[in-house]
Amino acid sequence: MSNQPDSFLTIAHQVIEDEIQELRNLDAALDENFSTACRMILDCCGRVIFSGVGHSGHVAEKSAANLASLTRPSFFLHAGEAAHGDLGAVSGDDLVIFISNSGETEEILRLLPRMRSIGAKTIAIVGNLQSSMAQTCDLALSHGAREEAGPIKYAGSSTALNCMALCDALVMATSVAKGMTEEAYWHVHPGGAVGSRLGAKFNHSKS
Fold this sequence. Notes:
Blueprint: H1 5-29, H2 32-43, E1 48-52, H3 54-69, E2 74-78, H4 79-82, E3 95-100, H5 106-118, E4 121-126, H6 132-136, E5 139-142, H7 158-177, H8 182-188, H9 192-206
Parallel strand pairs: 1-2, 1-3, 3-4, 4-5
Helix pairs in contact: 1-7, 2-7, 3-7, 8-9
C-alpha cells in the first residue's frame, strides 16, 4: 500500500462508508424488542447499570454517563471487576445492560447466574441472538453490525459504533418518555459550551 495521501483517503472513505452501512443495518433491525427494553428501563425502580469489557466496556461506560446526565441514576460496572467485589453494588431493583459483540464474553457469562440470584433484570446487546448471553438474559437486542469497517475486518469499529448508537437510542427514547427537555438538561449541565448555549437560550426566553 502506497503512503500517498490519496491512499489514506481511500481507506478513510471505505471505513466511513462501511460504518454507515452497518448503522443502516441497525436501523433495519430495530423491532418491538427495542420498545420492550425501553419499558424495562422506565419500569426499573433502581439503577440502570451498563456492563462490558474491552471496546464494549468503553461503550458501556459512555452510555452510563450519558443516561446519568439525563437525570436517570446509572453507573458503569466492569464485568471483570464485578467478580472481585463490585457485584456488591448491584441490587434486586436494578437493571443491568450487558454489551458484548460475540455474546460469549466469559466475564459476563460468569455474572449472569449471580444477577439472577440477586434479582436484577438483564438485557443483552449482542451481535448474535443465538449466543449464550442472548439466551440467558431477560431480553436481547441485536446491534445489527455484520462486520467491522475497513480492509481489516477484525479491528473493533462498526460493532462498537452500532452498540453505542443503540445505547444512545435507548437513552434518548426513555429520557424523552420521562419528560426530559432541553431546559431540564440545562439544570444538570450548566457548565461548558453546552451549558452556555442552553443558558443563553433559556435566560433569553425568560427575559
